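Morning!

This is the sequence you dropped in the shared folder:
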Amino acid sequence: MVINSYYLKYWLSCIVFQKVIENKEFVKGTTQKFIPLGHLRIIDIPLPPLPEQHRIVAEIEELFTQLDAGVELLKKVKAKLKRYRQAVLKAAVEGNLTKEWRTAHQGELEPASVLLECILKQRREKWEAEQLAKMQAQAKTPKDDSWKLKYKEAIAPDTSDLPDLPNGWCWASLEELSWDSRYGTSEKCDYNFSGSPVLRIPNIVDGSIVLDNLKYAANDNKLDAIEPLASGDLLIIRTNGSKELIGRVALVTQTYDYPYFFASYLIRFRLISIDILPILVNKIWNIFRTLTWIETRTATSAGQHNISQTVLNKLPL
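The structure's back. Tokens below.
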């Protein structure tokens, strides 16, 4: 029997052969799977005449060459799209996207400093409401307003090395735009546990929450101290062995019917929900300046990269 070795290679790579060797009766072993040589010898191989084998191999290789060229083209297009996306985001945060609109509405626009005052006012109100709720849960009644003095003002961003903004815009820190932040749970999770679902790094994809590939907590009682995710929550990857994942975010945009929690290598910032502020923060997060800011402040130890909540509080937006 004469056979083209490349023809044999391609046939052994095809799905027909793969289905044959996946057959339970064909494969032996329990913990260590193997195929006996005798089984391999009796596999039927479709054998066309030798000239046709050559033509089949030539056709396969021509099509594979075209596929490879298509893959390379897609890579180049993807790279161009990534650069274009960055260019659009850069134009947005520098004010170039809305320059003509601002000119047309000059004198009609409220400066961002007024908006920031409203955000900071709501931030304090959110904190006070939470503190009152905690005291009520403990059956405590405040004698006066002295407890309000414990409120911690948000850190304003250091603007010394930041670029100038369009007239009417202002810089704000992530802490100023959020009223609460905390690390996730370190409770043990697994696919087979029966507790509440706990979001992990694979659930953060392109700025959105993906509720696939979920793991569940072993004990819901240990989650009592953590508020479940709510609309307006910004989840940030804080620690991982891959540095490029640090700082990746996802915004919770819906109210869940069931409580979802998040793992300890994520940080949650609860953004102030004034108009589209949470959506805006999520949209502009991936600009080069923000990603570079995070990268240069990421600490590395024992092969793990980490950025802390304290550092992220100062992130300028």
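Headline: The chain has two domains: 5-76, 111-313.

More detail when I'm at my desk.
O.
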